[in-house]
Every structure is written in C-alpha cells, then in structure tokens.
C-alpha cells in the first residue's frame, strides 16, 4: 500500500495523530538490538552453554527473556467472532440530525469522524476460513469528540434469540462439539440443528443464515444491521426509537454454496485479501448508514414488538433514511496491536444515543465488556491505542494489570474538597451523558415481554415470500447440505416438521433430499413480501469485480489491449493467468506480465473469466487447464468473455445455453457487452 497516500487521507485526523504517538520501528538503519531493559545484545543466535557440546546454562538471561516473552505472545481469542480483520476509515454525515439526536458526530452535514471497523466470523476459531456459512460481525468504533461510540452489527437484521439468557446455549450448540472439537467453522452438524428445533425463535435468523446472505462475496458487498433497538434523544429530551443499517455502495452479493466451500480451501483468507486489495488499489469500500425511526407514541402500532430482535422492521413499512457514509481507507500498521487487541462494547454510547428495553441489548451491555476483561486480564484494555478515545479520559479509576500512565494526583476519589471536587461532573446541558428517564413499572418476572415474541414463523415466511426463485433454490440446497449432515434421523425429521411452518413445499423438498418423511404440517398464512429482502434488487456494478485473463503467446494484440482498457476504465480488477510466470507476447509483439499460473490460483477466486487462449510450451496441458477454469466458472453461473482466439475452448451444445457468455467474433461492442455481463455477476437461467 502507498503509505504516504494513506497518511494524506488522515491529515488533521485526531485519531491518526494519536496512533502515531504509539508507533515504533525496530528495523530502521543504525538501530542496535537491545533486550527489554535496553541492554545492547551481542549474540541473538546461539545459547549460552558449558562447552560447545555441553548443556545450556540457566544464567542465559537473554534466552530466558526472549523465550518467555515469545511463550506469552498470544492472548485468549474471542469466544465468538474470533476470526476477524480490522481497518480504519472515516464516517461523514450527510445532514444534521439535531432534531432527533444531540449526538455530536451526527450534528451537521459534512462532519467527519475517524473510525475503526472490524469484520468477523461468529463460529470458527482464529485459524478457520473466511467463507464459512456463518453469522458475520460488522463492528464500527466511532472516535467522536464526545468519546467512543461502538456500533456492533451483523449481516442480518435479526438475531437467533430473543433473550440474552440463551447466549451461551446457542454458542455451545454452534461451536465444535466438546468431545472431538469438530467440525470447525460450520453448522453442518446435528448439535446446532437440535438446538434450532428446540428453540424455534431461531427460525427467522436461520432462514437468513441458510440463504445467500450467509456467504457474502466480500465484506465490501455485505450489509450490516446492529439488530437492536436504540433510542435517539434530542436536546429537548425527546426520544425516538431507532434501528441502524449499513448498506454497501457496491450492493449485496454472495458466493454459491459449492463455490464458498472450494474458496475456503483454496484461499482461507479470501475476504481479508479482497479487502486489502481494494484499499491498496485506492478503491475504498463504502457503506451508507441508514436509520429506521419510530415515534415513542407509535411503539405499539405494529403487528410485531419493536424490541424483539428476532423480528425485522420491514423497510416498506418503516423506511430507511440514509444519513451518512463510511469509507474504509487505511490498513492497520500491526495486526496484533490494533486488530487483535481491539475491543467493542454496545454500552459505549455518546450523548444522544441510549438503550431501549430490548432484552438482548440489555444482556449484550454486560457480555461484551466482561469478555474483554477476561481476554486482556486487565481493566485497562481501553488504554490500548486502538481502543483509546481521542478526547481526554479523566476519572478516579486506578490500578489493574499493565497500567501505563502514572496517576500523580494526590486525590483519587469523588466527592472531595482537597482537589476542589475534580475531576468534576459535567451537566447534561454542557455535554454530560444523561440516560433517558423512561418510565419503568411492573412485577419482577421472567415472563416474555409479549405473546408476539412467540410468533416464530410469520416473518420467516415473509422472508421466504420475498426471495426470487433462484434464491429459494439456493436456500433449499443450503438447508439440505447442513441439515443432511446431521446423523440423528430424529433431528432431521424434527427440522423438516419445523420448516413446514415457513413453507410446506420447501420442507417437503428438503425432506426428500435428506431421506426423511415429508412434513405433516403446513405453513403459516402470511402472503406479504418485502422486495428489499431479495438480493436481486441490490445494485449490480462491474467496479472491483475480479476478472481472470487466461492467455498464452500469439494473442491478438489490438483486440486484447482494447478489452483490457475497457475493463480498467470500468474499475474491474484484472489478473493475467498463464502456464508460467514472466511475460506473454502477442502476435505483434505486445508483452503482458503474468500475475498467476494455473498452479498458483483457482477459477473460484474470480468473478469472471476472459478466455484469450494462445500458444504454450505444452499446448495439451494449457488447453486442459483453460477448460477446467471454464467448466467451474460456467457451473457457478459467472460471466465469461471469449476472445476471437478463445472460441475453440467453448461451444454451444444442446445441454447448455451459454447465457452470460459473450463472444468477440464479429462483435464491435464486445468490450461494453462483457462489462455489462460482469456487472450482472450471475446468470441464474444458465443451463
């Protein structure tokens, strides 16, 4: 990445300036190695021993310091969302939201706020794959002028449970079994599906999880919802219920099931590599922040409880207003220091944003901070630079492990007279945080908030009704793959009976696929649909789609150069693939640098292929490799461009219709048509 280019983006950025104060480089010229005490090291290669063939000596303090530090390099991984990757960026408000909230970072159009954003997978450990069928985190830390505000999202608008008491249970059920610690990073096992049928409030989110949304093509093409209901509070103390949404500017796009499984083996770091590539090329991932708003007096006017996190707020009923844009434009300088040590907490709020009585949110406000206290073995994890706010921290907290700053004040309590009662409180009028004085009454109980919390299937049915035929088929296939991996016939049969509540025909097909009896029940009588829930209605653009160019020597120089120019002008990412690294040469002498060989890459890593063909030292093997790439790309419904020299590699027969295959022969508009096909991304009617 062009570091200087990245720095220029952050001129005047308080967080960037703060982070730079913690930077150090050990590899600069003329720097001498020292131990932790600053003592210069004369030998960092061999251990101290008694004679050159003798035992090592315990007095080798340099070895002891080096090895003991290495032994402690790791900290406990997060119990969930362990596999993640974070980057920096900026949020810019589109307009003032002062009428609804006194949050300073939303107070005026054009106001910019530095952020740190972390994407993560829920189930797998740190070493698992990016492309698992999984719940994903989309956490954004805003470094505002009033303190840090953490917005923690998932790629679904609903949650798997409606009460925080079940956090542990659903996590245990989804994670590898405690006997063999398998399988890793998947819910294709019976323990999860046993949990689902016995905790059926999970139905709605599991529908989302099993859909294409459970396998994003890229974090850059993934939506995010914090799932919880919050309050906006304005300067007059008026409350408005709010849910947030992150909408990617590139649209929401996904991998196919077979494709995701292969990518996970070929490139387990597929999503992070994709994000790194986009930032390094200066095409920064962008998302719009949307809000859905409900007046306090309208809380009970809907056919669902707005505090129930297993229910979404339909966008056709409660429209999304877009109020700002997030741009991710800088990589971290050190993965461990910044990404691994980053900590997020939904109770990190700023004035103008407050909790509702959402029962899951209430539980999350305890769970997140508590797990970070365990991971870091210290209450001082918010002093780590990535977690530190850009405003002053003045309080009477003290001690705990790894306290870096020295509190030299004589008085460390409140209230006091010796220090004139400082640090002093700040009134709400001057910017001090004040909780919304909502009315609370009732008997102490463990009853659910409303009977509608027990309506598990109406919105799951709404989701099903909203999908296209291609999305429905994908969801059925994904259900069949995952439930079919269960060993228990009882668990499989119970699931079929349960999913008949969503759609009887869907459940019957799944039953046939996994070898159990068809369901006896029928689906709930919901006929509504929500076009906003179908990915076919998302933006489709060619920019940042990755095209693999399969090419040998002797290509048509002018034709290929024109196509490559057209692709680059439309922001398409290109990789040249051939039999060997080095250069390929056209018929008229044009040379192109080869980025990958057939051995070092895979067709699943590309959104589209441009088949040029040509001469090779081993033409039989070269042609065979091209055919294998074409077959898998064709199977995965991807666009394919065929140069005039590439036509021998693909022919139309009765068993295929070549939908989405664009030919250059006698086609003056080939480049433009190919770009249009790349933007479409999938050709669902292909045979």
From TrEMBL:
Pfam families registered for this protein in UniProt: Catalase, Catalase-rel, Catalase_C
Essential cofactor(s): heme
Keywords: Heme, Hydrogen peroxide, Iron, Metal-binding, Oxidoreductase, Peroxidase
Example of a GO MF term: metal ion binding
Heme is among the record's keywords: yes
EC number(s) stated in the UniProt entry for this protein: 1.11.1.6
InterPro entries recorded: Catalase (IPR018028), Catalase_clade2 (IPR024712), Catalase_clade2_helical (IPR043156), Catalase_core (IPR011614), Catalase_haem_BS (IPR002226), Catalase_immune_responsive (IPR010582), Catalase_large_C (IPR041399), Catalase_sf (IPR020835)
Basic and acidic residues biased stretches: 1-20, 28-47
Record-listed heme binding positions: 118, 167, 364, 368, 375
GO cellular component: cytosol
Catalytic activity: 2 H2O2 = O2 + 2 H2O
Cytoplasm in keyword set: no
GO biological process assignments: hydrogen peroxide catabolic process; response to oxidative stress
Domain Catalase core: 34-422
SUPFAM superfamilies according to UniProt: Class I glutamine amidotransferase-like (SSF52317), Heme-dependent catalase-like (SSF56634)
Region listing for Disordered, in residue ranges: 1-48
PANTHER family in UniProt: CATALASE, CATALASE-B
Function of the molecule: Decomposes hydrogen peroxide into water and oxygen; serves to protect cells from the toxic effects of hydrogen peroxide.
Family as reported in the entry's similarity comment: Belongs to the catalase family. HPII subfamily.
Protein name: Catalase
Species per Swiss-Prot/TrEMBL record: Lederbergia lenta (Bacillus lentus)
